Here is the input.
Amino acid sequence: MVLKIKAIGGYGEFGKNMTYIEVNGKIILLDIGIHLDNYITFMEDHEGLAPTVEELIEVGAVPDVFLFKERFNDVIAIIPSHAHFDHVFAAPYLIKFFPNAKVYASPYTTQFILNMFRQENKEIPTIITQDCNSRFKINKDITIEFIYVTHSIPHTVMICVETKEGRFLYTNDYKFDDAPVIGPKSNIKRLEELSPFKAIIVDSTRAVFPGTTKTEVEVREMLFNEVEKINNDARSIFILTFSSQLQRLKTIKDVAKRVGREAVFLGRSLAKYIYAAHDIKLTKIAPKQNIAQFPNKIRRILKMVSENPKKYIIVTTGHQGEPTANLCKIVDGILDYPLKNDDWIIFSCTVIPNPVSVQNRKILESKLAQKKVNILKDIHASGHASHDEIKKLIEVTKPEFIFPSAADKPFEQEVAKIAKSINYNNSIILEIGKEHIFE
Here is the structure.
């Protein structure tokens, strides 16, 4: 039996995740994501023209599937682990290359993909929805099992690829959150039952951070405390977070209710994730009239809020300082909402650690300081596993091989160090286009 893993995207880099696994001549692709910064930068300079796949590959915005172009017909399954942009957003551009592939996804991920294809006016692929803890066959040689894990978006799964030669576990992305706001805890018991694994592909995003990642309930308490402190004196309150962080959005809705305000949500990406949650009745974040996706409605809601700002909390895009996002447009006067020195901006997020995001955020904070707006930062918990959780994953799964992924090389090398510290010495750092064949 031929058994092979190949790095297509998300190795030695943050973003555009895609892993190729070949079993007996048939291929499955795990994730199909974009590199968000590269994508945004390219689209801003592209003047509204529809990009070609070749252009997106050239600028590093989507995985280079032409690394295996002679094998497109052998791809039989595309399996996204969850609905974050860097794991699924390349689907409208790339799925057309794989005529024999079906998409297998958890319920929320399925709904997000459907909405994405509809909004892009593209032909919807064959999608088979599977429960978050489910087991199903792809063909006679490959069985897939979804194993539910906590992350910063609902219905995230680890993907177990079972073959006659052993089990492979794809873990991008996860953390072991013992106090999630939406959904159950990670299914560690099932990982224990399935171990030992032939190989695990490990989320390395926070490998250099000690301890365990903060729980979402801790962030919820922080937000409640901070907003209650400022509420009486604040005119406008803006809270910014990752659009996909539905647990955080639910918390913000609850915070607003606690202090007697009403939450409004402004931005296309926010609307995409909120509507997907509404469509599958996962959680109700806001009534439709409080969600604005396009400029005209955004302007109408901002005008309404400006007439009585102490009645609302504004949740909007722009936490990374993206020049075209709503907060930046407000700061630059493109959207009419004058900021004053009794307004508060709360960043319930971190800055993505790449040069573009870091620089954009610095520019945004400088402009806010000039307007003498009050700022609170870093009221946040990551969705990614830190040092101790990565160690726990390795101890639970007992892998023969470890493939760090989903981060720059120093982070991946840190995973190898963590593994070595507990006597797992077979870590392999893959580079894009490189493969490992299991003998």
Observations:
- DSSP finds 14 helices and 19 strands in the chain.
- The mean pLDDT is 95.
- The longest helix spans residues 355-370.
